[in-house]
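S2.1 Query sequence (Response regulator)
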Amino acid sequence: MTTKTVLLINNDPNLREVMQACLSHIGGWQVYSIASPLEGLQRAIQEQPDAILFALSTTSISFLTFLKELRNQPKTQTIPVVLIAPGEKWLNFPLLQHYQVLGVIDDLSNPKKFSEQIAKLLDWKEEIFSNSD
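Output structure tokens follow.
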């Protein structure tokens, strides 16, 4: 079983650190943690992770720009994207579908459930919780 790689983009350093720990310790994944969408795009091209998790604490415009650029790059156009957006009610789901966002996670209150939701969206059943017991 190969360890999955995840690119986490979140501009909040404290939340990013907690999410990274959760994803690596509970999910068992290798996590690249990035602060900015531009840096995230560069890292996605470079590393070609198995999935990208974009925490929507940055502006929606930077997220949409990121998605457009990601889907225009041959090396990254098929990388699955999951949006992490607690409490966001304005989301335009047809637009997210257009850019092939797999789903939105809006509850970060339970670290185990957070990793389970990501694994379910990405269909990574065999990967989850290999390191959680």
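The mean pLDDT is 86. The CA atoms of residues 35 and 129 lie 26 Å apart.
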